Amino acid sequence: SYQAGKSRTWEDKMYLYPIPTGELQRNPQLLPQNPGW
């Protein structure tokens, strides 16, 4: 739960999810992985 007045941190990598390994193996054109993953 969120506590009022408490600051949160957000890492830039959280804007994009990692691409699943299986998807990268099927389609190498997806490389490189999303930043931070």
UniProtKB/TrEMBL annotation:
Main subcellular location: membrane
Domain of life: Bacteria
Pfam families: SusD_RagB
Segment forming the signal sequence: none
Domain named RagB/SusD: residues: 8-37
Keywords, in A-Z order: Cell outer membrane, Membrane, Signal
InterPro entries in the cross-refs: SusD_RagB_dom, TPR-like_helical_dom_sf
GO CC terms in record: cell outer membrane
Gene3D superfamilies in UniProt: 1.25.40.390
Compartment(s): Cell outer membrane
Family note: Belongs to the SusD family.
Name of the featured protein: RagB/SusD family nutrient uptake outer membrane protein
Organism: Phocaeicola dorei
